[in-house]
Amino acid sequence: MKIPTGDPSPNQEGLSQSEKYVLDMNFAVHALSEDVGNGLSSILMRKFGGGLESIAPIQTYEEYLREESAKRANPDAYYDYVMGKSDPARVQEYNAKIRAFNDDLERVKREKDDQKVQAFYDEMMALLRTRKV
């Protein structure tokens, strides 16, 4: 499908046509924003680069979206639109898993537990790719 390239002015949600199109395509299939997975990529890069000890705590769903929304023309509209489309139960599940990983992070770094990092990444990406019911 072609991304709309018409009028770049915001629509009633305060998003550009292309932003809304991309988000609507994601949420037509998924319960969460797959873009949030980009916040997890740093742990894999460190795992494969041998730098587990430099992994920083992972952001929650809302923290990541706030940071990414700040890069948009209308940050509040973008954040509100994504959160409005996100499945609240899945957001809670995502955040609970993030907090559990962050709580275990010092042990992971100390023991260089790359298996835990890989399993966590795989689990989180599967959760982000959960299809709508």
Structure description:
It is a single chain. With 133 residues, the protein is mainly alpha-helical. Helix content is 61%, strand content 0%. The N terminus is likely disordered.
Number of strand segments = 0
Gap between N and C termini: 23 Å
SS-derived structural category:
mainly alpha
Helix count, DSSP H or I runs of 4 or more residues: 6
| Rounded Rg | 16 Å
Mean pLDDT: 88
Specify the helix fraction band: 55-70%
Strand content: under 5%
- Element-by-element helix/strand order: HHHHHH
Brief account:
The protein is built from six helices and no strands. It is mostly helical.
Give the helix/strand layout.
Elements lengths: L16 H13 L11 H9 L11 H9 L5 H11 L2 H24 L2 H15 L5
Features:
133 residues, mainly alpha, 6 helices, 0% strand, elongated, disordered N terminus
